[in-house]
# Entry
Amino acid sequence: MSNKAFEPAKLGSLTLANHLVMAPMTRSRALGNVPNELMAEYYRQRATAGLIITEGTSPSANGLGYARIPGLFNQEQVTNWQRITETVHHHGGHIFVQLMHAGRIFHGHNLPEGAEGVAPSAIAAAGDMWTDQAQMQPNATPRALRTEELATVRDEYVHSAKLALEAGFDGVELHGANGYLLEQFLNPASNQRTDAYGGSVQNRARFVLEVTRAVVEAIGAERTGIRLSPWGVASDMPHYPEIDETYAYLAEELQKIGVVYVHLVDHSSMGAPAVPAETVATIREKFTGTLILAGGYTSMDQIEAALADKADLVAIGRPFISNPDLVERLKAGQPLAEPDFATFYAPGPNGFADGYTDYPLADGQPAGTFSPSYEA
# Structure
């Protein structure tokens, strides 16, 4: 079979083994917000992806909104992430860390002592989230960031990006999608500021662009990507009249900054409205770097069609959970295994390895070699 998907791909100065990207997916296995050996095995199993983008990883204690998500802001986290990057590289893969500050998507039970939920405005997101201490709880109300604090938050991203290189990552992806802190600045429903970071499209995009420029200055444009979700509704992000104007402006400015890629996600396969083709076309026109498209790609026909049209790379999410050998299965035309939704973010009867590192290969052989006994 000769498909573009399986040919080597360029990403900045990197040469990827193929055009397939493992999309970032929260899996909630980082006990104490520190990466571990079980996570190293999970990423090792999937290192045949051309590029792995890690689960959302907080650049600060304040950004740890969910239970058991990893951070990258202290030396213990750097050391443990280094084990993961080393094993991915040893098996021929490349890996970016996704820096995700959860912002107003948080509950105090999920934050370490001394941390607090912060956001553009003191507006709670609708909905509940899991806490290990009290199970499902409503999203809490964040404290609005003061104007003079924004430089500190920006610098947290920069510090984390520098630590990412120390940990051996090939680069970082700034999470500007799915309703987390950076997108909270973009959307007028979550950003009702009256200073220079609220109001107009340009003002609401200001913080996103300041963070991106600062990270690029610190680690280089070829090591910096960003994820965006135009027309997305995740994490209580309602639509607003200037959506297309916002993302056209972002695309223009990201082109000037020179980020190595823009990663667009479309959640229509999960029930959200589809991103209009015109929106993607506008972004593609204004941003000439690598464009990664994500959203419901499960067949070679879909992947090849995307690569023949707007996409330079195609990101795949949930199929990578239950198919550690996804690249090989797609190449051989083998059926894909279905995931166990109950263990996406929680342990199974036998612990955190259930539904995480215990999915077999297509031939029935185990993909994993490591099964520690974590307490549920």
The first helix runs from residue 37 to 45. Residues 370-376 have pLDDT under 50 and may be disordered.
